[in-house]
Specification:
Strand order of the largest sheet of chain B: 1-7-6-5-4-3-2
Number of domains of chain B: 1
Structural class of chain A: mainly alpha
Largest sheet of chain B: 7 strands, antiparallel
Number of helices of chain A: 6
CATH topology of chain B: Alpha-D-Glucose-1,6-Bisphosphate, Chain A, domain 4
Order of helices and strands of chain B: EHHEEEEEEH
Distance between the termini of chain B: 41 Å
CATH topology of chain A: Arc Repressor Mutant, subunit A
Number of strands of chain A: 2
CATH class of chain B: Alpha Beta
Helix content of chain B: 25-40%
Number of helices of chain B: 3
Radius of gyration of chain B: 15 Å
Largest interface: A-B, 20 and 25 residues
Distance between the termini of chain A: 46 Å
Number of strands of chain B: 7
Shape of chain B: globular
Oligomer: heterodimer
Shape of chain A: globular
CATH architecture of chain A: Orthogonal Bundle
CATH class of chain A: Mainly Alpha
Chain lengths: 111, 159
């Protein structure tokens, strides 16, 4: 379906940018941040960060809730799950997860 | 009517899923065992889903898993529940979480927003396992409503 493909296009476009991936990583480390918190130490104007967040929200990779005058941003994994479902079969998943766990275990070894 | 939405503590999780279905079907899927046994790791649900009523979620072998109270019930638009568990011998058990489902029509699809609030500090491992669990559960719900088939994903409890 067209709209579904458009949505997937939007997700890939949103992910095809280092700054936007960095914003997602920041939210993965701590969910529910304000715009000001997301601007900290990024060396980007508030406007630029806002623009990136709009693209991430339109792709449904970031969800936001209003709290008073502030807006809190949350990592939304739904589109990534959908992409995974489309191209990774259930059987491959267990193997991939095992490999991913191994990679994590090895990387965490020196902590 | 907006009781319970504006909280001092911000939510821990906000998940948004767009599902090609109707609000009523999404509501039914969240509140009837016929569906939850298929997408919620085999669990069935019991409640009359009226505001103030108790609700519970039971594992396939009959073990009580999750229980709580219905805080807001506005079918098929909004369901808010307290979410408590028997933490067994956990020395400092977390307080009940509040789970809110907001269901709204968005064009041809339904926008399902799941929000989790916790009232006290929760060990990070539970939040992370919970976040992963919710992503799988809601993806499976979407798949079930759109294709008739849930996702089959194995997930171990947090170590």
């Amino acid at each position: 379906m067209d709209t579904e493909d458009e949505a997937v296009d939007g997700v890939f476009r949103a992910l095809a940018d280092t700054n936007r991936r960095a914003l997602l990583d920041t939210l993965f480390a701590r969910n529910g941040q304000t715009l000001s918190e997301l601007c900290e130490g990024r060396g980007m104007s508030r406007q630029a960060v806002t623009k990136h967040l709009v693209i991430l929200e339109n792709a449904n990779l970031v969800a936001s809730v209003k709290r008073g005058r502030e807006k809190l941003h949350y990592l939304n994994p739904a589109p990534i799950h959908e992409i995974g479902e489309r191209w990774i079969s259930k059987y491959e998943r267990t193997r991939l997860e095992a490999l991913f766990d191994l990679k994590k275990a090895l990387e965490n070894d020196n902590e | 009517m907006n009781d319970g939405d504006e909280r001092i503590v911000p939510p821990d999780l906000v998940y948004v899923f767009f599902i090609r279905s109707t609000a009523q079907k999404v509501w039914d899927a969240l509140t009837s065992s016929e569906f939850t046994t298929k997408f919620f790791f085999g669990r069935s649900v019991e409640s009359d889903w009226k505001q103030g009523s108790p609700w519970k979620m039971v594992m396939a072998d009959g073990t009580l898993d999750v229980f709580g109270e219905v805080l807001v019930s506005d079918p098929p638009r909004k369901l808010q529940l307290t979410w408590d568990m028997d933490w067994g011998d956990e020395p400092d058990p977390p307080k009940a979480a509040i789970i809110t489902y907001d269901i709204e029509q968005a064009g041809d699809a339904v926008k399902l927003t799941m929000t989790q609030h916790t009232t006290g500090a929760i060990p990070r491992k539970y939040i992370q396992a919970g976040a992963q669990g919710w992503a799988i559960i809601l993806s499976s719900l979407k798949s079930l409503l759109e294709t008739g088939e849930p996702l089959i994903v194995k997930m171990d409890p947090p170590a």
